[in-house]
Design a protein that fits this description.
The complex is a heterotrimer of chains A (504), B (372) and C (251).
Chain A (H helix, E strand, L loop, with lengths): L8 E5 L9 H5 L5 E4 L4 E4 L9 H5 L5 E5 L12 H13 L2 E4 L14 E3 L20 E4 L7 E4 L2 E4 L6 E4 L3 E5 L7 H14 L3 E2 L7 H7 L3 E5 L8 H6 L2 E5 L10 E3 L6 H7 L7 E3 L9 H14 L6 E6 L4 H10 L4 E5 L8 E2 H6 L4 H14 L7 E5 L5 H10 L3 E4 L1 H7 L21 H4 L4 H25 L15 E3 L4 H7 L2 E2 L3
Helix pairs in contact in A: 4-15, 9-11, 12-15
Chain B lengths: L14 E9 L8 H9 L9 E6 L9 E7 L4 H18 E8 L13 E9 L10 H15 L3 E5 L4 E6 L3 H7 L2 H4 L4 E8 L13 E3 L2 E7 L4 H9 L11 H14 L4 H8 L4 H5 L3 H14 L8 E7 L2 E6 L8 E5 L2 E5 L2 H7 L5 E3 L7 E4 L1 H4 L1
Antiparallel strand pairs in B: 1-8, 1-14, 2-7, 2-8, 3-5, 3-6, 4-5, 9-10, 10-11, 11-12, 12-16, 13-14, 13-15
Helix pairs in contact in B: 1-11, 6-7
Chain C lengths: L3 E4 L5 H13 L4 E8 L17 E7 L9 E8 L12 E6 L15 E4 L20 E4 L12 E7 L18 E7 L11 E5 L2 H17 L7 H6 L2 E6 L9 E2 L1
The chains are: A alpha/beta (504), B alpha+beta (372), C alpha/beta (251).
InterPro entries (chain B): GATase_2_dom, Glu_synth_lsu_1, Ntn_hydrolases_N
Pfam families (chain B): GATase_2
GO molecular function, one term (chain B): transferase activity
Chain lengths: 504, 372, 251
């Protein structure tokens, strides 16, 4: 059947600049560029281009421009080009449209409607370059009150404390499984986390055995519905265990790693045969009600001898605050909430773009609900889903989160351009692929350095902003909505966020 | 934040433990065993709700409706004035032969207990109401009271039965109302709750009841909005902010008002899937297709395990794909239902039969005398 | 070496498991627990890098998630078990002299479970195998709906010794690995589309022989004779493809 869909991208090659080095041909795993020896020219097939910009960036003469295809249909506010072409694709194949990365639709971005405070005159700013400016924080359950025993001027803590994770800055690498991303990308995240003093999340793909000794103590390991790669050693070598109930990109549905991405090493880590689909079913089939989740949380605590915090990751959806409150009652030490813009390696596009709520509203409503119930201290909140810069991190903390998970930002640091084709396994940047030729392009030393650079830069910016607000320790910002004002928001949005309008 | 002009409500998520016990010969027993059994499933709840339903506990008033009332005001004064206001209303509509505070153990410390009172009454139907049946008259009274008065809540309205519930672990509620000392029933149901709203209120605990139908429920009804939308047309006010109430009202509508046998009612609440219906014989296919067509809005979606109590019988039912556990067991004339087998074994170590019913298949236990 | 006894009467889950762990660390190899009534995760707290191995006899009714994440120990239950037995079990052996509840062997990845009577819903859900580790589940009775849902590896054998017939529906829904053997027969309508029903061959007989002998050895009171059990017809259920959903998505 001939496809009635335009190519998404158009490749424009400046023939005067092109030196026929065939670099673009080598770089593109989709086979977009081919060399024609007869005419001594590179020929590009627009239909194969996914817009990842690898060829354009690596062309030594900047001879290639890749841009969205300018052909358009008659302008129609309801039938956008995307909606129109999706109908055609489904008519051609009868399949569910798959995509990668996070929600790209123009839902309101609340981060861009909140502004921060700065101190002047009445409360001095603090100079972060010369004065202490502390970003360290602890993730886990804290007791309601502490008991101390004082004996001969020596103070002893009498309360038994729950295990907590110490992070040097409120930024943690989000769950991206080995299988969805390449070994090198996964190792880069682990290396960067250990250098920075933060953590990385293994996602549901398990933690390869050779990485456990060095990186286990910086790993948050996941127990997802597919239970891949889980044995008692896996649970016990980690710093924390996270039960993945849902994620922002695809709330309510399961995950699917296509068999072509289950290579020898992926299969070894997940403990399934090579080439099988790795299916994570939609629910955990032993969790059909909140008391079942409580049972699994305690089973994991038992299996790890109560030495590690247990986190539960949920997608932010409509009634989630009540559910999250229930999860805290069920014994979770950390709640990770993933909002509408959370990324993924593969999800049906219709679910990624239509299910879930924005994380900004979610953080605020969860923080408020837990405080109303008097249980806010029994867990830490990690917010995820579209955190793009240090200002987003700070605003998340001010709304009530303890820390943030970053996924897309980390991948972009390593080279990703959000072309949304992760599920094909042909990532030209070597990030979301198991093809050794492609994965080998990602140099672990360089990629981990880039991650360290990003987080360090953000940390400095956070310190500057904190200092500007007259705060020198992160815990003084948590839930401190006084330092936020809204601009261009409706009344109900200000209500949900719990902030005043600018000028009020 | 919820605005009246929009269909907003705060739904509570409910997860928990359930238990039921019945003596088929109608011999009555106190709640001690049932309290032990539900306490054994302590970890399934979080102390924010517990309750019991008991059948056969008021033999000396067996022909009167036993109303159990909660007066929830913040101060004793406001509770007393709510009571006075309710009694004025009640006396207009009913002849009350006896009323008293429901006895409780003062030593048992529970959070913000309301004033709890019971009335034994018979209907005094006047004017247009004279054409109504007694049961219908009582239902309207209950709906009117519960939807209007904020501080007065009728939480039990059957004959020769009663519900006892509140905020606390179920064993604490049992102790508070002295269920192991003061009452003998031929059937008990019990419930331990794990709600997610810490400002739990006494009326939010299970069982939910209307007339002699009581429901204890483990799970969450994801079709609540639809079920409620349908039931409201038939005069049921769904004001209790808990999904369980739709099960109680659906049971009342189908079993009492429309007199549909329980086996069919189970097939309305938990119908077979279309693939299965399409392979049935003509007669069955027509029946089940019609049921789904007409009563589709009463399909209970989402995980659930419920025990419905009525005069003379207990019914256990789970959703169509059995997402919540239920174990049934018998020992001589005793019949048990429980979220976990261990709780049954605790009070009856030897059992004649133990099984887990299939999803959507009701387990019905009736008094031997009823069947004859 | 004699066995140590624990009286579980009145013990909460955590206390009971604390004691079991202490016994393991103290080098005890055999433990008997009496008066068990609903305590959960028995056998879960027994991970040790030194790989201690214990044999635990349980009298009473253990609670949910018995032997979740089990790390190679052997448990015998003298009575019925509840839901979640062998949840994500890594290795070891469980013998149940009675019935088991729902989600038996959920995500099981190694070891063997023998159940004398029947079991509930969602048995062997997402059971998986990898290289040397191939878990097995041998059940003397039958199972309820969703047997082998999402199964990715391992072996499940249902013997239906009482001849009640297999009445489960949605068998093998989403199955993409492993094998289910049913003694007796099953209708096509009871089984998922991606599952193939076929007769057994010599290799299958060998596997059945091995596991049935194991089963008979665990339950001597049933007085079964291997040849009697094995002579009746068995059917084999296997997935048609490793990739049952390969046509579901479009790119």
């Amino acid at each position: 059947m001939k496809s009635f869909v335009f190519p998404q991208f158009q490749i424009i090659r400046d023939e005067a600049k092109c030196g026929q080095c065939r670099g673009c041909e080598r770089q593109c795993a989709f086979g977009t560029h081919t060399y024609d020896p007869v005419s001594d020219r590179l020929i590009s097939d627009d239909n194969k281009c996914v817009g990842c910009q690898r060829c354009a960036i690596f062309c030594p003469r900047d001879a290639i421009v890749v841009r969205p295809n300018p052909s358009f249909y008659r302008p129609n506010a309801s039938w956008s080009r995307e909606k129109l072409e999706d109908v055609k694709k489904q008519a051609e194949t009868g399949g569910v449209i798959l995509t990668g990365c996070g929600n790209d639709k123009p839902f309101r971005i609340y981060w861009d409607h909140m502004v921060l405070n700065a101190s002047q005159v009445t409360n001095p700013s603090i100079d972060p370059l010369r004065e202490p400016m502390e970003l360290r924080t602890f993730l886990g359950a804290k007791p309601d009150l502490m008991d101390f025993k004082v004996k001969n001027e020596e103070v002893e803590i009498a309360t038994q404390l729950s295990p907590n994770l110490m992070v040097e800055m409120p930024i943690v690498f989000s769950a991206m499984s080995f299988g969805a991303i390449s070994y090198n990308a996964f190792l880069s995240l682990a290396t960067a986390a250990s250098k920075l003093g933060t953590y990385f999340n293994t996602g549901e793909g398990g933690l390869p055995r050779e990485m456990r000794e060095k990186f286990g103590k910086h790993a948050i390991v996941q127990v997802a519905s597919g239970r891949f790669g889980i044995d008692a050693e896996y649970l016990n070598c980690a710093a924390a265990v996270e039960i993945k109930v849902g994620q922002g990109a695809k709330p309510g549905i399961g995950g699917h790693l296509p068999g072509e991405k289950v290579s020898v090493s992926v299969s070894a880590t997940r403990m399934i045969p090579v080439g099988t689909d790795a299916i994570s079913p939609a629910p955990h089939h032993d969790i059909y009600s909140i008391e079942d989740l409580s049972m699994l949380i305690h089973a994991i605590k038992e299996a790890t001898n109560y030495e590690k915090p247990v986190s539960v990751k949920i997608a932010a959806v409509h009634n989630f605050a009540a559910i999250a409150a229930g999860i805290v009652h069920a014994g979770a030490d950390i709640i990770a909430i993933d909002g509408l813009r959370g990324g993924t390696g593969a999800a049906p596009k219709v679910i990624r773009d239509n299910v879930g709520i924005p994380i900004e509203l979610a953080i605020s409503s969860l923080d408020r609900r837990l405080r109303q119930d008097g249980i806010r201290n029994r867990c830490s909140i990690i917010a995820a889903g579209g955190i793009r810069c240090s200002a987003d991190v700070i605003k998340a903390i001010a709304l009530g989160a303890d820390a943030t998970y970053i996924g897309s930002a980390a991948l972009i640091a390593m080279g990703c351009n959000l072309c949304q084709k992760c599920y094909t396994g042909k990532c030209n940047w070597g990030i979301c692929t198991q093809d050794p030729r492609l994965a080998g392009r990602l140099n672990v030393d360089i990629a981990s350095q880039r991650l360290v650079n990003l987080i360090s830069a953000w940390s400095h910016e956070i310190q500057e902003m904190l200092g500007g607000m007259g705060i020198n320790a992160l815990e003084s910002l948590r839930g401190n909505r006084d330092h936020l004002r809204g601009v261009g928001l409706y009344e109900w949005e200000l209500d949900v966020l719990g902030i005043k309008g600018a000028g009020e | 934040m919820p605005r009246n002009r929009r269909e907003l409500y705060n739904k509570e998520i409910c997860a928990c433990s359930i238990f039921g016990a019945m003596n088929r010969d109608g011999e009555r027993f106190n709640a001690a065993g049932v309290m032990k059994a539900i306490a054994n499933m302590h970890v399934r709840g979080n102390g924010l709700g517990g309750g019991f339903a008991a059948y056969g506990i008021y033999p000396q008033y067996r022909d009167y409706y036993a109303f159990h009332l909660m007066f929830n005001g913040k101060t004793l004064q406001s509770q007393i004035s709510a009571k006075a206001e309710f009694e004025q209303y009640l006396n207009q509509r009913f002849d009350v032969v006896h009323d008293e505070e429901i006895p409780h153990r003062p030593q048992t410390q529970l959070r913000d207990p309301p004033l709890i009172w019971r009335y034994f009454a018979s209907p005094k139907k006047m004017g247009e109401d004279a054409s109504l049946s007694d049961d219908e008259y009582v239902v309207r009274t209950v709906m009117q009271t519960n939807s209007r008065a904020e501080d007065a809540y009728i939480f039990s309205s059957g004959m020769n039965m009663g519900c006892f519930k509140g905020v606390g672990y179920p064993e604490e509620i049992g102790e508070y109302f002295m269920l192991d000392q003061l009452y003998s029933a031929y059937a008990w149901t019990a419930h331990g709750r794990f709600p997610t709203n810490t400002q739990a209120w006494w009326g939010g605990a299970h069982p939910f009841s209307l007339l002699d139908t009581s429901v204890v429920h483990n799970g969450e009804i994801s079709s609540y909005g639809t079920n409620r939308w349908y039931l409201e047309m038939y005069g049921y006010a769904c004001t209790l902010q808990t999904d369980t109430e739709v099960i109680a009202y659906a049971a009342d509508l189908l079993l009492r008002r429309q007199r549909i046998p329980m086996e069919i009612v189970a097939k309305i609440l938990a119908p077979p899937i279309w693939n299965a219906i399409d392979t049935m014989n003509e007669k069955e296919k027509k029946l089940f297709t019609t049921l789904r067509m007409v009563y589709g809005p009463l399909l209970m979606n989402g995980p659930f395990a419920i025990i419905i109590g009525q005069t003379g019988r207990l019914i256990g039912l789970t959703d169509r794909i059995r997402l919540r556990p239920i174990t049934a067991a018998t020992r001589g004339e005793m019949f048990y239902l429980s979220s976990e087998e261990a709780s049954i074994r605790l009070i009856s170590p030897e059992l004649d039969s133990v099984w887990t019913p299939s999803g959507g298949e009701p387990v019905i236990c009736e008094l031997n005398s009823r069947r004859v | 070496m004699g066995a140590v006894e624990i009286n579980a009467d009145g013990l909460q889950t955590r206390d009971l498991n604390d004691r079991l762990r202490d016994m393991m660390l103290a080098g005890k190899r055999k433990v008997i627990i009496r008066n068990v009534c609903g305590q959960r995760y028995i056998g879960t707290r027994l991970y040790s890098p030194e790989r201690h191995r214990m044999e635990i006899d349980i009298f009473g009714t253990p609670g949910n998630d018995l032997a979740a994440f089990l790390f190679g120990h052997r448990l015998v239950v003298h009575g019925n078990a509840q839901d979640g037995v062998g949840n994500t079990m890594d290795d070891g052996e469980i013998v149940i002299e009675g019935r088991a509840g729902d989600v038996l062997g959920f995500s099981m990845r190694g070891g063997t479970i023998y159940v004398r009577d029947g079991c509930g819903y969602r048995t062997a859900l997402h059971m998986k195998e990898y290289e040397g580790k191939k878990p097995a589940l041998v059940i003397g009775g039958t199972a309820q709906d969703f047997l082998g849902e999402y199964m990715a590896g391992g072996t499940v054998i249902l013997l239906d010794l009482k001849g009640q017939g297999h009445r489960a529906n949605f068998i093998g829904s989403g199955m993409h690995g492993g094998t289910i053997y049913l003694r007796g027969s099953v209708n096509r309508s009871q089984v998922g589309d991606q599952v193939e029903i076929s007769p057994i061959d010599e290799a299958d007989r060998g596997i059945l022989d091995q596991y049935v002998s194991g089963f008979i050895e665990k339950f001597p009171d049933l007085e079964l004779i291997p040849e009697e059990v094995l002579k009746d017809g068995f059917v084999k259920l296997i997935p048609r493809s490793k990739r049952p959903y390969s046509d579901l998505y479009t790119y």
